[in-house]
Amino acid sequence: MDLRNWILERVSPAVMVVSSPAADAICREKNGLTVVDLLRPHGSFHHLSVPVRTVGDTSYRIRELQLRFFHSQTMTQPSREVADEHLHQLLNTLAKEHVDNEPTSMVHLLRKGSLSYQTPWFERYRQEFFRMLAFAEHECYDHPVACLYVVHVDAEDIVAELQQLQAGGNVPPLMRQGLMEASILQHCLVLHDATSEGGDARAQEQLKTLAARSNCSCSLMKVHVGTSDRKANGEPGHAGLWRAHFQPRLPRASAGELPDRPEEPDQGLGAALSSTDLKTITQVLEDFTVRYLLPDLELRLRALNQQVLVSRKGLRNQLKSLWRGKSASSTSLANNSNNHTAPAPETPGRTGPTPTAAGGQAYSTGSMEFQMRMLADVAFLMQDYELAGTTLRLLAADFKSDRAWKHYAGAQEMLALASFMAGASMATVTAAFSEAFSAYTEVARAAREPAAMVRYATRTALMLAEYQRAHGQFPEAHSALLQGYRQEYEMGSSMRAALLLEQAALFQLHRTPALTHKFAFYIVLAGTEYQKSSLLRLRAHAYRQALPVYQGKEWNYIKEHLHDALGKQLREGGEPVAAARHFVALLPGAFNPEAWQAYFLQQLLDTVQEAAAKGKVPPLDLPVPEVDVSRVLVRHDDHICHADSAALSQPLDQWRLLEGPLGAGAEGTTSWLDEPSSKAAVRPPTIVADEPLTLTLNMSNPMKLPLRLSHLRLSCSHSLCRDEASLSQYVQADELEFTLDPSDAVQIGLSVRPLQPGMLTVDGLEWTLNDHVRGFRAFPARDPAPSRRTTGVRRGAAVRDRRILQSRTFNVIPAMPRLEVHMENAPPSLLQGQLFCCRLSLRNTGPTPLKSLRMATLHPDIHLAPLDPSHDDDPLGPLSQSSADTQPGAHSGASPPHQHSPLGQSRVVARSHTAKHGVHVQTWPSELAIEPGQALRWNLWLHPRSYEPLLALLSWCYEAAQSPSDGPRQRLLRMTARYDVQPALAVTPVLTPSAQDLHKHLLRLDLDNSQGATALDISEVACSTPGWSLTPIADRGHAGAAPSAIGGSTGRPGVQHQHLEMPAGTRRAAFFHLHPPTRSGGNVTSGVRWMEADAGPLAHFQARPSHPPTEARGTRRTSDTSTDGASPSPAPVPSPSRAAPPGSPFAAAQGPLWDSPNILVAWRSHAQPASTSGEALGAEVPQAVGAVHLLDCRLQEGQAPIRALAEGCGRVTHDFAAAGACSVPLRLHLRNCLPHPAGLSVEAGHMQPHTAPSEAGAWRCLSVPADGPVQASDSQAVGPPAALDHLWCGCACTRIPDLPSGHQTSITLQVAVFAPGLYKIADYGIGWTTTSQGAQQGSFPGPPFLLQVDAAVPS
């Protein structure tokens, strides 16, 4: 409220109304109003301009004035008991009107900035509370300043009727006791009913007679002129004007109201009054105020001021009062100790207060103190606040000297109001209010009825708090209300104590910052006080306001007390549904023992059953079981289907890479131009009719009791469904039923299947707890997932977030064909290099046929057969049979000739090609259609060539056989194939040039099965590169080689059988001669028959290497390499053959002659017991076959440009006695290994032979084996110095001008020795020069030749 306007309305002139029975009867019968009810709405004047001069020579104007009208017999104060009972009933009524079971939280209103300063019922209570304290004997502003007599114009003797009213004793009780001024203005109001006989002439005649014969002024008020204005509903147009001024009634006439009200007529309040009547009444009252009331108050004010000026103002009067005050006060108190009234003295003077029947003190109207209080209050009513304040300060001193604390408190209270209206400082106003409160408190301690006195202290506290609140001093206002609360609490007035605490708590929210915890503390105390006074609705409201503060805090016992009290109260009040909501909040109560949890749960069950007996109970937001709705995983398919969760978790970029060649356009590659703007509406996800929408969530039982859950399902709604009863025609939801043990946690999946197109909304989760309580948990609506351009977010993480429920609304499109792919014989794990055939089942589970089937994959270790299984001719070839029984034309596993293909086709051929980025695409004939329920079976070959989990991505694309009218035309199925790979055979090739043949290479295969757990047999070793061939080298006891490791030939060039067993944990080596192709075609092509088959899987895998050459030779990862199957490495990408470095003479080499050979090592595993692989006990697992691909094998040291081989007689015998020099011919073979023709030159004697330094000089120890070629050793030096070894003779430089690429030639050199011994011939060099564009040249020392010369033994 606005404090200034409230003071002007509350402290305003009071007019006592005495009406004749005839005048009162006219108003009651025709309008349902009393005379006072008729006058009250017209007592406010806002456009006055009345000049007034109270004291001094300065005048001012009164602009606004409010008159208060009361029946004379009602101007008395009701007893405390009656007032408190009335206020209690009023609060109960207001609580029913304003208190809601779900009120808006004040803390929430505070955050929104719309918090009110008070509760709705407090303003009304405060107004009634102040009214109950009106007409007190120690205050004069409620005393009447005028008496208005109302007589009817039709009275036979109007003068006699007026005199009868004046002599009838219709005065307030205080006036009869001499405690209220009786010498007041008297005015007669003649009520003229326009509908009565006689008319206006008789009314004017009666008015003149009354004015001439009476001793008071008179006015005529004419009513019932014209017709009443009515609203559309028939109610009088001004009925609300009267109702706004009605006050609640009391059992007896008091507080300004009669105990009964006139009966409202059928036509409504004011039915006979028109707008003209209202203007007439206002004009008559304004004329009465301006012409009679204000002049009378002005004269009265001057007279009172003159009396006070003579008796109390001035220094002499103050000293006299100080000298005589005590004696006069004591004498007056002694003489009047047993009298209830005191006669007024002839001359006003200091007579002291008179004891009252209530135990207090009162001053009679003739006392100077009464006259001074009357002067101050009349000055306040006349809006002369300076005069009122001056008089009240002087009067307060007199009351204090008389120890009349009640009057002193009243004077200080009025002084505070006058100071505020006069614009004094806050300190002055606050000090006056505080002094009044303290004085009232002292009076209450000494009074016989302290509770009656405490009410005045509470009134002062309320006005002080309102004054401080208006100035923003919320801490001070809070303290003022707490002081009032303490006084009321001590007196046992729980009702007012609760109200004061509630308002004090609200002021804590208005502080900066808001003290929410203190607010909750005081509001809970207020609720406790409300409970003491049986105001249960207000107690519930207070508790509800405290709950949001403790929400989320660990104040468990406070929240438990609040909810328990609220629940019990609402249940007793006949509101079981609202009570159940509070009992729900008592769960789970994890801090409580099991007995208390059982008690609270049973309390909830009983309340719900009681509510169900009265009607339908809505689902409750149950906290048990705990449901993690923040992370609900959703699984649904639109035009993109995912076979499993692993497919859904793969990065989106990999799927787009696969699906690009399919032409599906599922999601495609988008740019920033394709992305929707932030302001655009986000489209809901799409699902297909008659396909499940599955939500996976976590549930747990936080209680110490088992919970039985039934009818657990998803709560949904459909856009086409108009009522809940027909929802089953549009949505089919699965239900679960189980029991959660204490502290148990489970993960559940719930599915819902839309049956018709439209919009499907998943609202939440619903269930029934312990067969009685229906629970519901809503799913939160989330913001759309971040776009691809969001910075700081990993692309893979954004894809995984798509599994979380983002939108509760789904767009249901018409039914489509649905492809499901299953692997019928999927192995639990594979060996590294194993070749395994899986049988795929491609089934159409949708309601319509599908066609145009396509598949794309990027992983090189999987291959889809080109033919259906009924026409798959021997895909394994020789590997499917034993090595001994393999024949060129044999094949294994072929279907009988009479077997038919699936779907009634004679032959189904799937064409394949490699698209961009190495994506392998397989396409089935477009005329092939799979009907609903039919299945197509196909072979899928697996060949893991690296020791890491095999994770392959397969994307299937297909179309509906009939183009749909609505929805997408194509559909995708994304699936993953993941298998664990166990270590098996690892092969490392070592390739070196042959020292005995310019065309051969030496190949050593290091076979490693040390990490494998399965024994293997090496079946075959083959060279798959056209033109190359292999021949085994006999074992000569090489370290690491197995005896008899070399087997016989298969009869096919380039293929060698290896009867080599490799037990688990062993290592072996095998040796071969590798023959490259020649220009002349002298070598036969080593083609492999079983790799040339159309459906041969190894041909596909050989063409698609699994790893780059440096990593594809069977090498294993080190022990510290991660083997986590959850994060496999991406699918390997085929890499080109290793090329020569730029500038090398081999940079332009092309053709079969210069290709690096590819080696294939085939193996078989031994049969294993079934106990290790899941088969029936006693059976054996079939043998596994596999192969190791050695791609792009190159020389270990690199290819030499020119290969040279020196030949000659290694040992000669010469008779040095006959001839001093021995000439030995040396044959040098040269082969051009460059891709271009080259010119060669051989220069003898220009290259220094290589000698290893040693302590013995240049002699070298030559190690000559018993058989085989002689080999040199540089470990020791023996023999003659190198400079005297030998001499070259003959042609020292031989040139070969143009040797074609791949050709060889031979030249003869001569070397001469002069003594027997062992010689190393190496001091010659070979140079070469290319003649093609970009000529290059080089040189290198010739190969050393060992020559042993023996001296001839004389015969």
Write the layout of secondary structure elements.
Elements: H1 3-10, E1 14-19, H2 21-31, H3 35-39, E2 44-45, E3 50-52, E4 60-62, E5 65-66, E6 68-71, H4 80-98, H5 106-112, H6 120-132, E7 144-152, H7 158-167, H8 173-176, E8 185-193, H9 199-213, E9 217-223, H10 239-243, H11 275-311, H12 315-335, E10 354-355, E11 361-362, H13 368-381, H14 385-402, H15 405-422, H16 426-446, H17 450-470, H18 474-490, H19 494-509, H20 516-532, H21 536-550, H22 556-572, H23 576-584, H24 594-614, E12 626-627, E13 633-635, E14 640-642, H25 645-648, H26 652-659, E15 686-688, E16 693-700, E17 707-718, E18 731-733, E19 736-740, E20 745-754, E21 758-769, E22 773-778, H27 795-800, E23 809-813, E24 819-823, E25 829-831, E26 836-844, E27 850-857, E28 862-864, E29 911-914, E30 920-923, E31 935-942, E32 950-960, E33 970-982, E34 986-993, E35 1001-1009, E36 1016-1023, E37 1029-1032, E38 1055-1062, E39 1066-1075, H28 1097-1103, E40 1159-1165, E41 1168-1169, E42 1180-1181, E43 1185-1190, E44 1202-1208, E45 1211-1214, E46 1222-1232, E47 1238-1244, E48 1262-1263, E49 1271-1272, E50 1286-1289, E51 1293-1299, E52 1304-1313, ...
Parallel strand pairs: 1-6, 1-7, 7-8, 8-9, 14-33, 15-23, 25-33, 45-56
Antiparallel strand pairs: 2-5, 3-4, 10-11, 12-16, 13-16, 16-20, 17-19, 17-21, 18-20, 21-22, 21-23, 24-26, 26-31, 27-30, 27-32, 28-31, 29-30, 32-33, 34-35, 35-39, 36-38, 36-40, 37-39, 40-43, 41-42, 44-46, 46-52, 47-51, 47-54, 48-49, 50-52, 53-56, 54-55
Helix pairs in contact: 4-6, 11-13, 13-14, 14-15, 15-16, 16-17, 17-18, 18-19, 19-20, 20-21, 21-22, 22-23, 23-24
